[in-house]
């Protein structure tokens, strides 16, 4: 496992990026700032209308050229049986059959439930590629849950290449969820509206919930498309979902404001990474019911390959206890956390940590600062080749995380130590932690078996290295010819 995903599971509304940078997305602020910008532009245009009238004839040709650059919305024509090529997929994706093409046709193709609707500039940019964002909807995704993607055709093709839109066998947790056997229930929580509460004892490191997105919207689309076009596209994305999923979205809490769509997304979305690290905003209707705590007992992991979010317990959660995640980076101070939550979610946090004494809060913030410092130091030591120092600091980080009750997912931690020991030339300890990682991934039961398979292959490679080393040390290796 790469060290940039080491030790630190991401929390609600943010994602761990390269070098442990937190990739945050403030949907409320994005919507509000665009609305203010539009209002300001409207006033400026009113004041300048007389000047524009006088210059209208002089600017006629320039306006015509500019018009070609403006955002345009169009419906892709229905056609099927045509082989996909790079130019067609970026201009107007095939609505019925967009998938992986082989010699026998579209064996892995996805049949969209609606013709994709696209918006963008048909004029090519400097790289020769037109900017285009499209709405793709599949009402049959995951046994009728449905999904709408508002993103580029390139990202959609990437997901198809991964097989992310296929219905695959799920883990035991997912199978239990399909049968209605859940470890949690959604109930009314005093002072919070709806919340998620454990129905039984949930063990540390156990998958509490598996959720799949109803909608995924690229931030490129959110940032470049004019507000009224954006709202129309997102509303259509919701309307093209099955009725059951639509109802779940509209029942979610929303911020007060002029536009319902803005309010729902601003309060209930999560940021995830797709493709080559492009941020997308996901609407996970089940996980959106999980409330915030500055001392959370759960966090989420997102699998791009399976298009699934797994909510995992930091530590044991007793029956009747509320399941909570952090909406803000845990390394922020109490004042900064409360300010951020008030400005972006509109509530004053009264969680256990925020109600604690000044001494308890100070101790907690001190431990979290040290955790952040150690994260940075582990990466630096690895980069500079001080692998044993990196191991020592990773072990110290684990100690502080246990004290703060924010431990890592242990198979990920063992994968990290495996890598560091291997880089340090310590095959014995690398193999020891590799076995612990493999055992941990097998017990974890993720919907995505990629990490389990990586761990298995890594352990096989370590075994071969160990055999080769023993062969050389016993004198059985290749000899120089004199």
TrEMBL record:
Highest taxon of the lineage: Eukaryota
InterPro entries registered for this protein in UniProt: SET_dom, SET_dom_sf, SET_domain_protein, TPR-like_helical_dom_sf
Matches recorded under PROSITE patterns: SET
Residue stretches making up the SET domain: 182-328
Pfam families associated with the record: SET (PF00856)
SMART domains: SET (SM00317)
Name of this chain's protein: SET domain-containing protein
Organism for this UniProt entry: Lasiosphaeria miniovina
């Amino acid at each position: 496992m790469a060290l940039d995903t080491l030790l630190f599971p991401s929390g609600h509304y943010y994602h761990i990026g390269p070098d442990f940078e937190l990739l945050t997305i403030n949907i409320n602020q994005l919507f509000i700032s665009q609305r203010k910008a539009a209002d300001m532009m409207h006033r400026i245009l009113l004041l300048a209308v007389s000047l524009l009238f006088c210059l209208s004839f002089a600017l006629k040709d320039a306006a015509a050229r500019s018009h070609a650059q403006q955002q345009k919305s169009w419906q892709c024509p229905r056609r099927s049986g045509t082989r996909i090529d790079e130019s067609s997929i970026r201009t107007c994706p095939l609505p019925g059959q967009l998938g992986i093409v082989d010699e026998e046709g579209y064996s892995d193709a996805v049949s969209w439930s609606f013709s994709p609707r696209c918006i963008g500039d048909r004029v090519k940019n400097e790289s020769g590629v037109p900017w285009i964002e499209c709405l793709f909807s599949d009402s049959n995704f995951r046994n009728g849950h449905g999904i709408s993607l508002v993103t580029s055709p390139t990202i959609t093709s990437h997901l198809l290449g991964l097989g992310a839109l296929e219905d695959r066998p799920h883990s035991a947790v997912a199978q239990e969820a399909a049968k209605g056997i859940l470890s949690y229930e959604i109930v009314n929580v005093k002072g919070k509206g709806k919340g998620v509460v454990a129905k039984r004892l949930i063990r540390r490191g156990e998958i509490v919930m598996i959720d799949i997105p109803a909608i995924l919207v690229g931030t490129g689309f959110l940032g470049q498309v004019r507000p009224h076009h954006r709202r129309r596209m997102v509303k259509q994305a919701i309307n093209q979902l099955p009725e059951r999923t639509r109802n779940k979205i509209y029942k979610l809490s929303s911020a007060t404001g002029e536009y319902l769509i803005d309010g729902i997304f601003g309060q209930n979305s999560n940021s995830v990474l797709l493709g080559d690290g492009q941020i997308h905003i996901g609407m996970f209707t089940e996980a959106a019911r999980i409330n915030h705590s500055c001392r959370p007992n759960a966090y989420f992991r997102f699998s791009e390959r399976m298009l699934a979010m797994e909510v995992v317990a930091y530590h044991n959660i007793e029956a009747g206890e509320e399941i909570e995640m952090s909406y803000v980076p845990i390394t922020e101070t109490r004042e900064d956390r409360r300010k951020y939550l008030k400005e972006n979610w509109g509530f004053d946090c009264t969680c256990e940590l925020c109600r604690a004494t000044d001494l308890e809060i100070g101790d907690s913030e001190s431990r979290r600062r040290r955790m952040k410092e150690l994260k940075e130091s582990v990466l630096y030591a690895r980069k500079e080749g001080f692998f044993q120092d990196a191991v020592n600091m990773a072990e110290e980080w684990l100690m502080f995380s246990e004290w703060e009750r924010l431990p890592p997912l242990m198979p990920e931690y063992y994968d990290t130590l495996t890598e560091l020991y291997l880089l340090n030339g310590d095959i014995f300890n690398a193999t020891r932690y590799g076995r612990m990682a493999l055992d941990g991934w097998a017990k974890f039961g993720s919907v995505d078996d990629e990490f389990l398979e990586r761990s298995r292959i890594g352990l096989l490679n370590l075994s071969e290295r160990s055999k080769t080393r023993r062969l050389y040390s016993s004198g059985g290796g290749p000899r120089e010819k004199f």
